[in-house]
Description:
The structure holds 2 protein chains of 2 kinds. Chain A is of the alpha/beta class. Chain A is 27% helix and 28% strand. Chain A contains 13 helices and 19 strands. Chain A has helices at residues 3-11, 33-42, 47-61, 102-111, 115-121, 132-146, 153-159, 161-167, 178-186, 427-434, 440-451, 453-456, 461-475; strands at residues 149-152, 191-195, 205-206, 221-226, 231-236, 248-249, 252-257, 262-269, 283-292, 298-305, 310-313, 316-319, 325-334, 339-348, 354-363, 368-377, 385-394, 400-409, 415-424. Chain A is globular. By secondary structure, chain B is an alpha/beta fold. Chain B has 10 helices and 12 strands. In chain B, a hairpin with a 2-residue loop joins strand 11 and strand 12 (223-228).
Amino acid sequence: MASEEMEQLVRREYKQGFVTDIESDTLPPGLDESVIAFISQKKGEPQWMLDWRLEAYHRWLEMTTPSWAHLDYPPIDYQAISYFSAPKKPEDRPQSLDEVDPKLLETYEKLGIPLHERAALAGVAVDAVFDSVSVTTTFKEKLGEAGVIFCSISEAIRDYPELVQQYLGTVVPQSDNYFAALNSAVFTDGSFVYVPEGVKCPMELSTYFRINAANTGQFERTLIICDKRAQVSYLEGCTAPQRDENQLHAAVVELVALEDAYIKYSTVQNWYPGDEDGKGGIYNFVTKRGDCRGDRSRISWTQVETGSAITWKYPSCMLRGKDSVGEFYSVAVTNGRQQADTGTKMIHLGENTRSTIISKGIAAGRSDQAYRGLVKVGSRAKGARNYTQCDSLLIGDQCGAHTFPYQEIGNSTSTVEHEATTSKIADDQLFYCRARGIDEEDAVSMIVNGFCKDVFQELPMEFAVEAEALLNVTLEGSVG
Amino acid sequence: MLEVKNLHVTVEGKAILKGLDLTVNAGEVHAIMGPNGAGKSTLSAVIAGKDGYEVTQGSILFEGRDVLEMEIEERARAGLLLGFQYPIEIPGVKNIYLLKAALNAARAARGEGEIPAPEFMKLVREKSAEMKMDPSFLQRAVNEGFSGGEKKRNEILQMLVLQPKLAMLDEIDSGLDIDAMKVVAQGVNSLRNADRAILLVTHYQRLLNHIEPDRVHVLVDGRIAKSGDKSLALELESRGYDWVVEESAA
């Protein structure tokens, strides 16, 4: 869509106000079976969906929160969370940008976020700024011609129940882990994509254009299915730091690639990291997994992680089909008091499966981050190959970077390579740039962007440009 | 243009420069020579602002400004540019990107806008041709995987693009074969003009066969022990440094 057109759509005021009846849509904090039944009913779901949620809930009750990650945060009181909250009442939200953290506003300024979007991102009580219905309609027509289904998961449950039932939970089972089980019980929205056999999706799909994208919520559920020989590129997130009243985010993303299918999933995650002491920042506990179910299928994860107070995230690939390919390209940046424990799992099950892992971690300020990666090769995965490269860059001397690579190799015909480096941003590199007249902050961002180049070049063009700008803003003030 | 007065510098507590005086005028080429460990590289590093060098006494003025009060990048933007003996590699950062950022930083300091892309491309292509560098070098990461000679040519390329007022070249001839040295010398000679000064730091006289200096200074034990015209360099070539050392001790 032409950007002018977009500008106009965005500028147009939303006259109707909020469509939903807020009062009747909000539940008090707490979680039990009746809450789940309420959510399911609100969404107009069929019985099988409710049963599935309840099953997940019962599994969750028996589970405990994982403690192995290199993270430090106070225990979360799950009974203090409201599991179905419509948008906050306008009078409870900041009434104008004057009431918002000035640091956040400064960042919007630097990222060049248009004025009319700043208020919405900061959670200010303005009438909805995005006339998303019109935008989506334009997209939907084009996608419809190609036979691609792109809608919210709630719509998919109602309109395409057979597809959802066939695939939901087959990649990330309900009881996969504590946060995935919780998500399975209470998820309220997310995206659904189905690309039919032989179709190459005619455009990049982005959450940004999905209905209600402004309110993705804390328990997002995404399911993407690429049928035989189909292809899709999906973009999640946006570079503008987003505030959210919900501190806990536990999303689940499932990808299914059938024979010869290719799914490229790119993320720029920039949730509010909190103020200088990390107060008010988002806890981001995400389960993302792709299933290369068909022969010669390929799934590629590319992520740029800069936000959140805490990130717990391991986009993974199950390489089941013969000759299937899994890829993970990641840049994780932490500053201030942020903590990140992120990485990937590549599970080689089929013959001649291949995987590539490129992870770039940058720690500044008093932040702490860990790369955690598992490469597992099953006994039947003859001729499997993995290449892992994982580099960390430290800025200053109060931050930390840790690498936890795990390998489990079940046969003798496989090749697994691992390279890891940790370096401090070199004083001589900084001096060299500064002695050419480039100021210190620009020099740091230049060096860091160079360090991340292998990953950025995997991102779709526009995203890559935004990601670079984002990196610069995130690292501002990290030296000197 | 450059006035160094009674400069005393210590590195990790050890005195390296002990009262150095040097005046360089616009249009002149000065060569700083001397035995190893005399403090030749220290002088250019201190002028450029490298960390780890402590000035305990003396002053450095550049066009009347107190250099020691200026940030590293300010000095470069003011036209004080150091060519490195060992140029640094910066993985992932394109050579052309560094050049453009440096040029625009200098332009911004002069109150000029960013250079238009076509004009910049024309400029760097022209200058890399002068340095006999294939345009593909511009797209490679800064100094990464460059040979010794390529790194040195790249340093001169930066000078040709940035057009400093005072170019300081630290052992620009080290590790060069004779062909590469000719190209480098040609580049340096093309920088010579009435408004610009060049400070060559070198151990060997051979570079001065290709770049003729106006003044030659011999640095011994942290001070300029002897100055002269280009004939002094030739004398050093035939007699070595010992006689100057002895003369200055006497």
